[in-house]
């Protein structure tokens, strides 16, 4: 459903606070289905780069909700800890990562979308995202998730794109490739987001 522009507009309506109401369900321990649906909804919303700065601002504060499921119980040096969002500092020894590999991958894909614009990259870098990803990469056993993690790390530690290419979402994608990706996503998401949006914020 969030693949449709009309649905994304409703979700991203800044007066309705719909996105903010969905965020806690990224960590709904009682339902992997709901976590998966919310993660995919957030990812689809992030395809619209015009909202990235708002999503990363204090009004929504999306970044900690994406990073916390990817974080484990590792301790960080003080200089690294200070750069992390408050919700990711001094996590307890029993902290566990999101157990479902596909959800971890979706969260990484969402973070990657948020780094598609220069302001997004700068903010995601400044808040210590690399440190969380570094530890995730050491722990991660799923090849697909590791690859997604590596791609995001490359964006965060790599050189800035050349002039005129700063917005990676404006790089043209072949129509047939885009249609294939949309078709695959639609098959996976059918039915999941309906439960999330109807049951999650009722």
From TrEMBL:
Domain of life: Eukaryota
Pfam families (UniProt xref): DUF383, DUF384
Coiled-coil residue spans: none
Location of the Protein HGH1 C-terminal domain: 110-163
Protein HGH1 N-terminal domain: residues covered: 1-105
Family statement drawn from the similarity comment of this UniProt entry: Belongs to the HGH1 family.
UniProt name for this protein: Protein HGH1 homolog
Gene designation per UniProt: HGH1
């Amino acid at each position: 459903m969030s693949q449709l522009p009309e649905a994304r507009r409703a979700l991203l309506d800044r007066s309705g606070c719909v996105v903010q109401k969905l965020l806690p369900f990224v960590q709904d321990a009682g339902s992997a289905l709901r976590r998966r649906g919310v993660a995919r909804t957030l990812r689809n919303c992030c395809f619209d780069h015009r909202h990235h700065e708002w999503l990363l601002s204090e009004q929504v504060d999306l970044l900690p909700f994406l990073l916390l499921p990817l974080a484990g119980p590792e301790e960080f040096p003080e200089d690294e800890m200070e750069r992390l969002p408050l919700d990711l500092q001094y996590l307890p020894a029993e902290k566990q990562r999101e157990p479902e590999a596909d959800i971890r991958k979706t969260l990484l894909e969402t973070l990657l979308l948020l780094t598609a614009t220069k302001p997004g990259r700068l903010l995601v870098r400044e808040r210590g995202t690399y440190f969380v990803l570094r530890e995730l990469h050491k722990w991660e056993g799923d090849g697909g998730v590791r690859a997604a993690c590596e791609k995001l790390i490359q964006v965060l530690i790599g050189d800035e794109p050349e002039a005129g290419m700063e917005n990676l979402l404006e790089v043209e994608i072949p129509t047939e490739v885009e249609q294939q990706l949309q078709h695959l996503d639609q098959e996976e998401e059918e039915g999941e987001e309906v439960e999330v949006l109807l049951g999650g914020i009722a």
